[in-house]
Amino acid sequence: MHSSEILRMDEATLVKALKTMPLTEMEQHARDLLKDLGQSNYGGFMKEAMQYLQENAQQEGRFEALQSWLRNTLPNQAVMSDIYARLATIIMMIISRKLAKLSSGQNH
If I label 70, which of 21, 81, 90, 95 is the partner at 20 to 30 A Cα–Cα? Predict the structure, then answer.
């Protein structure tokens, strides 16, 4: 699946696809979208995103807050505003999967 396909999916289809998508593929889509928005340091950016979510863990509307953070943090503005929602969905799924792996003792 290409990153451009992710941008054309409706939200329900995207979430369903992400649930079955391998983590490496999901990360590649995140890298592609971030690169399009002017961010080439994937690892550093994901660390910042995780820190942001940790600091705002008790805040209601974390998903919307992450979208806003993405909109305000990324150097290039997105042509379509729902790109931030899709990117936030992907980032939250990646973080969720990585945390699940860490808590289960898996390193890979």
Answer: 21
Residue, of 79 and 26, whose pLDDT is higher: 26
Question: Residue 3 in contact with residue 32, Cβ under 8 Å?
Answer: yes
For residues 37 and 86, the answer to whether their CB atoms sit within 8 Å is no
Our CA dihedral for 6, 2, 27, 34, rounded to 10 degrees, sits at -70
Please compute the mean of the pLDDT values over residues 47-66 and round it to a whole number: 84
User: For the packed helices 42-55 and 23-36, what is the interaxial angle rounded to 10 degrees?
Assistant: 100
Contact 27, 94 (CB under 8 A): yes
HEC profile of 79-103: CCCHHHHHHHHHHHHHHHHHHHHHH
Query: So what's the pLDDT on residue 57?
Result: 65
Instruction: For residues 82 and 5, give the distance between their C-alpha atoms in angstroms, rounded to a whole number.
Output: 13
Closest-CA residue to 14 (of 96, 98, 89)? 89
